Amino acid sequence: MLEKPMIDITLVNKLYGSFQVLTDCTTKVAKGEVVVVCGPSGSGKSTLIKCVNALEPFQSGRIIVDGVNLSDPKIDLNRLRARVGMVFQHFELFPHLKITENLCLAQEKVLGRSREEAMVKAMGLLERVGLKDHAHKRPGQLSGGQQQRVAIARALAMDPVAMLFDEPTSALDPEMINEVLDVMIELAKEGMTMMVVTHEMGFARKVAHRVIFMDKGEIVEDAPKEDFFGKPHSDRAQTFLSKILTH
Amino acid sequence: MFGNLDFDVIRRSAGYLFFDGMSFTLTLTALTTVIGGAIGTVLAMIRLAPIPVLPKVVTAYVNLTRSLPLVLLIFWFYFLVPYVGQWLTGADRPVHVGAFSSSLITFTMVEAAYFCEIMRAGIQSIAASQTNAARAVGLSYLQAMRYVVLPQAFRNMVPLLLTQTIVMFQDTSLVYVVSITDFLGAASKVAQRDGRLVEMYLFAAVVYFCFSFAASMLVRHLQRRNEFVH
Q1: CATH of domain B2-229
Q2: What is the pLDDT of residue A229?
Q3: Domain-wise residue ranges, chain B
Q4: Which residues, 6 or more positions from A77, have their beta carbon under 8 angstroms from its beta carbon?
Q5: Which of A11, A20, A92, B109 is deepest in the core (most CB within 10 A)?
Q6: Strand pairing partners for A214?
Q7: Residues forming beta bridges with residue A213, ordered by sequence position
Q8: Is B189 touching A (CB cutoff 8 A)?
Q9: Cβ separation A94–B138 shorter than 8 A
């Protein structure tokens, strides 16, 4: 890996009170790389990616995103968050705003774009995720799959250098999962740097470069996709895979 | 027994009752609601902010204000504020504060305490994940509050805020203790002057009822509309 990694996580520890959520987590994500993070619930996957855009503080260790050290007191965390897109399990669109306003708000308030500029960007992205016709509706009028696609578009509107996905399809009805995954696959193929917490192993097989397996707050396995699905080293990853792949 | 009632007194005094009395009542209610609402929202944000000391000060203020009878507060303010003003400005005599200013300050501060609690509940009704989502696109804490949390909190709380305003509308009649003439005071004056106590107090009751009932119908309508939104 000659280039500097886009996301560089070194020995990160995080505690909630006395409960250790993350233990010595270390990994790197190169520019354009797609990394899938999986593991049983409560293993710290979501917490780890929330640490990457500083939504969750951590007690020790170091995270560097695109050359910016998150622990550096001088950096503007708002600026950093604007450059790292995040997609949540429950979409978290702003229900009181129209779809276009959801996409324009941060563009205008954070990036200082004009309304016209922001709208052009927003409409372009809505077209890309196939929701141009819904531009003037409110989030509550859309299906879960549509809302999640809007959420992806909202993150992309900030021209992020990397995208984080926190179980983006877990809250969706089965028939809506694919429309969201298709958008994510397209994004991956275009070379977006992505960290994806998901149990969609089909997605992992298709576009991931690496798979990280976490358990009890530790990164147990961090391997290229082929190795991970071919023969995971750890027993825990093998047990996990056998459980979720048998259906 | 109703034979010798003279309801014409209402017609004769209507101008005074409404243009002097009711306009004062509505002005005080409106100013109190707007200023108290703004201060209350700020207090609520302070109470919930992850900062030291200040939230505790606000909590103490809210608890104290809500534990004392309104009449007592009006009195205290009316008699104390001139001396506090003197102490603050270092003047050699108590600062003159008119009855209107004094009662406006009192009602605003009390209303701020009640609105603070309503807005606090409103802000807490918006899931933390919404704040997270707002922060994730790069908005600052205050921007997230301003553009994402408060509009939703406010919308959810409009029925409660209006209900509180109705209570305040009725409570403004307490200004009689500092000799201000509001609607009830005006009705009372006419009643005493013309010896028409039953007529005037009946009429005052009907007017308060109409205003308050109309407002609570509006509250119910808004509540139902909110239910449909969710």
Answers
A1: 1.10.3720.10
A2: 87
A3: 2-229
A4: A54, A70
A5: A92
A6: A219
A7: A38, A221
A8: no
A9: no
What whole-number percentage of chain A has pLDDT above 70?
Answer: 98
Local structure of residue A142 (DSSP, 8 states): S
Q: With CA atoms as reference, report the closest residue to A33 among A58, A11, A4, A61.
A: A4
Strand A60-65 to strand A68-69: parallel, antiparallel, or no bridges (unpaired)?
antiparallel
What is the pLDDT at residue A47? 94
Nearest CA in chain A to B132: A55
Query: Rounded to whole angstroms, how far apart are CA atoms B125 and B114?
Result: 17
A55-107 residue pLDDT tens: 999 999 999 999 999 988 898 999 899 999 999 999 999 999 999 999 999 99
The pair of structure tokens assigned to A213 is: 């397996």
ipTM of the complex: 0.90
Give residue B1's pLDDT band: very low, low, confident or very high (50, 70, 90): low
Amino acid of residue A172: L
Name every residue whose Cβ is closer than 8 Å to that of residue A215 and which is 6 or more positions away in sequence: A39, A40, A43, A236, A237, A240
- Give the pair of three-digit tokens for residue A144: 């879960």
- The Cα–Cα gap between B133 and A55 comes to 9
The torsion region of residue A159 among left (phi > 0), alpha (psi -120 to 50) and beta comes to left
